[in-house]
Design a protein that fits this description.
Two copies of one chain form a homodimer.
Chain A (H helix, E strand, L loop, with lengths): L10 H5 L23 E5 L4 E3 L7 E7 L2 E6 L5 E7 L4 E2 L10 E4 L4 E7 H10 L1 H26 L3 H15 L7 E3 L4 H8 L3 H13 L3 E3 L4 E4 L2 H7 L8
Antiparallel strand pairs in A: 1-8, 2-7, 3-6, 3-8, 4-5, 4-7, 9-11, 10-11
Helix pairs in contact in A: 2-3, 4-7, 5-6
Chain B binds a DNA duplex through helix 6.
DNA sequence: CGGGGATTTGATAAAGGTCAAACTGAGTGG
DNA sequence: CCACTCAGTTTGACCTTTATCAAATCCCCG
């Protein structure tokens, strides 16, 4: 984080996406107590939000931009465990120290972080805060379960189709069929556990079928959403 | 659940494994308030604890035995999203209705269930309960993150090795190298996103290498744990 | 002692990983 | 302003791995 931090926190910006569209209960509380603890940080592309083996100081919520949660093995291979988009809380999964690292994928990514001990104390005192944290954790679980189903897909077409649908759902541009992919093809490959070349080939295949179209390498337009859904074998229909 | 339910709840049995060995803070509280809400159920092999599309009535904790969390697609394929072992909480990931089903894998599996609304109210009133639920949710996240790394493994040997190590870690027989696999080869295949035949072949390969040995189809003995760890490429070393 | 699902083994073919090379596009310096 | 650079992306050829189909074997349970 090489830029100045906004110690004077702007509540409006951070609360903006506190209740994701997929959440069932949409509370109208203007400013959750938890947000008073938030410290906003700004990150450049590739810059780490936290590193592997770091101590557990904070919980996080991505405000704007995008980030990847990844593990790196001794032999250089990388596993991307999750992508974080606006509204996503992360950093819940570790107990002793960070098992993974989190890196921004787009310039100027904004991340709110909540000092863990203060947040825990606040949760003890304020049931609403405790409920918010629970909800954030449950949403994180739901996200990973959907992802598990996606990774379970066996063929490349199925995986990439499921991935595109996921990105479309989690994208901000809900109304449009245009989806911005903030990550590289390598990131997608490590996310789906496939070779980069296969990712590229599969995207080309979908383009030839006119299921998708490109307006730039990272701007994909979903022309035939039903075709994508069919390719995912109905497993993710109701997810 | 075709057997009688223990409405008169036995605290000792349920608290038994409340704090898994991997949890950092091992609280000595003899009976968490949450446990007073628990209703114990007993399930036969294959019997559902809950079904897909069920409403969200409870949270659950597996007390003894084992269960699988699975999704079934229209074309009959099945994805196993998680295995549940003693001490594991589950049922956190859904908001509107159950997206997956949970089925017991061994006869006489015991599951404690906590009425969700009562548990939420209790959490609001008792910070310690709220903390326990948070911890359970965070452990669930940690479990899935480890699994994500495992699913990310590309080769069959890597996946099966990682699986065996996971089962060993989560098994009750911590002292011994003997691991009981409560699930069928089909379950393993659906868990690792591979064909049954490949699972079987890979286990045979590991047996021939004398990395593992069998005392019955579902009783595996890990002869050379380091060999298994090496096969997982160090990705799961510190997980 | 069968019966039938679970497991293992075998043969084959398709899918995807790997290596290699060409292409693209954004940023850099002449 | 344009050539240059280099990482990211795409395409091609080849070959390993694993899914698939088929059949034999095991073993749990009545």
């Amino acid at each position: 984080m090489n830029l100045t931090e906004a110690k004077t926190f702007n509540p409006a910006m951070a609360v903006m996406s506190f209740s994701p569209p997929d959440s069932t209960a949409c509370r109208d509380r203007p400013l959750a107590a938890l947000e008073r603890l938030a410290i906003l940080g700004r990150y450049d592309t590739g810059e780490p939000v936290y590193r592997c083996n770091d101590s557990i100081e904070h919980w996080y919520r991505l405000v704007s931009g995008a980030a990847r949660l990844a593990a790196v093995s001794g032999d250089g291979r990388r596993r991307i465990v999750d992508f974080e988009f606006p509204g996503d809380f992360f950093g819940f999964g570790d107990f002793c120290s960070r098992q993974f690292c989190v890196e921004a994928m787009v310039a100027g990514t904004l991340v709110a972080r909540y000092p863990r001990s203060s947040a825990e104390r606040l949760a003890d005192a304020d049931p609403q805060t405790a409920r918010n944290i629970r909800k954030a954790a449950f949403q994180s679980i739901a996200r990973m379960q959907r992802r598990m189903v996606m990774l379970g897909q066996t063929s490349a077409l199925e995986k990439v189709s499921a991935f595109l649908l996921e990105m479309s759902d989690r994208s901000q541009h809900c109304a449009s069929s245009a989806v911005f992919l903030p990550m590289s093809r390598y990131d997608i490959a490590d996310y789906l556990a496939m070779a980069v070349e296969t990712v590229s080939r599969t995207l080309t295949e979908l383009r030839i079928r006119q299921t998708i179209a490109f307006r730039g390498v990272r701007h994909v337009c979903i022309c035939n959403r039903n075709a994508l859904k069919t390719l995912t074998s109905g497993l993710t229909d109701r997810l």
